[in-house]
Amino acid sequence: MNTTSREKREADFDEAYRETRAASTPKVYTSLSCADLMALPRPEWRVQNILTEQGLAFVYGASRSGKTFLVLDLAFAIARGVPWFGFKTMKSHVFYAPLEAGKGIRNRVEAWLLKNKMVDVPNFHVQAEFQLALDDDLDIEALAAWVIKDGEPGSVVIIDTFARATAGLDENSTAAMGPVIAAADRLASRVRGLVILVHHTGKVIGKGPRGSSALTGAADSMIEVTHSDSGVRQWKADKVKEGQDGMTFTFKLDRVPLYVDDFGGEVSSCVIVPDTEADEARREDRRVQGKNQKVVLDAIFVALESATIGVEGAPPDVPALTFEQATQAGVQMMDRGETKTDRRPEMVRKVIGGLVAKGLLLQGENHHVGGPRLRKVGEPVPLPAKVVIWRPRRAAGRG
Prior knowledge:
36% of the residues lie in helices and 21% in strands. It has a 9-stranded mixed sheet. Helix 10 crosses helix 11.
């Protein structure tokens, strides 16, 4: 790398640092018109539809769920600029602080390199000291300086784990977590990139990461990693600002033998491998089954083509129908038969419930405080009330 290029990059980082430090001086607020807003650059993706280019993200899961192996694979995909589980990535430097694994990260990296028949990934950097405190301003500045020296604006910083980086702090206390979140945001601003915090799940699987709800609120993206009793490992886009959450993918851990130790035992590590067969089987199960489901789904899709955008309870940028509108669309396309009582509305409601359970339609409630709640696959669907229906977005960038 020539001197001019490095000097320019360091100047960029110095400018970002001055902008951050200016926050301690008196502020002046100004206005943006709609035209001004339209002139601003759109949010960019680091991993398309999964992780934003800049901000704060969490990858969380229970112990032994495979989250560190998943994050390591993600890091190498970003460092190389290659697709990850079919999603496009924007290539950048990745800085990894393995606070929990420590020197053990060597085996995990070696296993990945062997599995992928590589000897090095130039844009991948591991912190040599294996220590960091997010509540220490000097540590934040040192970490930023490391990224500035060896990386470039837009780099990705991975801290594994959040618990090790906040040792001694009460994770359940909003007062304690607030400054830590602010520090992580400050780090993201300093490097003009993405900070990924690897964390443990809470006591109840599926209820978010361990600790204060402030963590969930602060995150731009969240990936949940699970390992079921039957041995199935999955990751889910649990929260994606400006994107579609809820997408789930299955993976396996492949064992990679490394060497024989001084006691004659084989030492190995693992790498993740997408379980495409399991995902295909899951997609098969979600497909439309039966004539009634096909008729109702086609009718609702036609109705959605001319439906209103901005319906309360649905995402602001997608067309949606009220539950009654969706029901009427299905009824109009279904044969009544020769019975005296018209049972089509009741039948269509049940069909819509089945389509929501399969994830082929999404449902929200426009009276739900704090925004729409997406129902989980298989969760019972309550009838009428203030319910809206819309179509899942296609996963752009896949394939």
